[in-house]
Design goal:
Length: 186
């Protein structure tokens, strides 16, 4: 197992700890919020580190190609779910935030199901991340940081994250349909 994969596995195993910290946070136990922020920051830095190591030392692997995006999706999606489940964060969340984790999860589920349908129909295909998808991931991560830090402008990071989520879903859907139509015509 490569060093890059080991770093990714540490990130995966840190996700339940992160979720537990987020869920257990109360204003009386402020340190839990800060610990969650520290762990989230460490996870983000480890994501950059394992990517750098994989590129620099040619440690690309099938496991890494699957595990790295899964770790990213899990910490973001579960982070939003556990934040929504904890009333102690409601003071910085918009009233419609409860729908946000559902929208983010639905987007990711539909993208994965669409990819599986394309693979089933056309055989093994390597999918490249879309630019709008990367922007969406950055928006999601920024929103989680703002929520954990309880910054006053959190709303102004959550709203664009919602808009990017919807736009990237439409982008992936359009790209998938276009791919299927051109492959079917060929």
């Amino acid at each position: 197992m490569t060093l890059a994969n080991r770093i990714t596995l540490v990130r995966v195993f840190s996700i339940p700890v992160f979720c537990g910290l987020v869920y257990a946070y109360t204003p009386e136990r402020e340190w839990l919020r800060w610990a969650a922020f520290g762990l989230y920051t460490a996870a983000a830095l480890s994501d950059m580190l394992d990517g750098y190591i994989a590129r620099r030392y040619h440690q690309h692997s099938q496991l890494g190609r699957r595990l790295d995006p899964l770790a990213d999706k899990l910490i973001v999606n579960l982070g939003f779910v556990f934040i929504a489940a904890n009333e102690s964060f409601y003071d910085v969340l918009p009233s419609w935030f409860m729908a946000f984790p559902v929208i983010v999860l639905a987007r990711d589920i539909f993208i994965v199901l669409g990819a599986l349908l394309v693979i089933r129909r056309f055989g093994p295909i390597r999918f490249e991340p879309r630019r709008l998808g990367k922007i969406t991931t950055f928006a999601h991560m920024s929103a989680i940081v703002a929520i954990l830090l309880k910054v006053p402008f959190t709303y102004y990071l959550i709203l664009p994250a919602l808009l990017f989520t919807l736009a990237s879903f439409a982008d992936y859907l359009h790209a998938g349909v276009r791919f299927a139509v051109t492959r079917k015509a060929a």
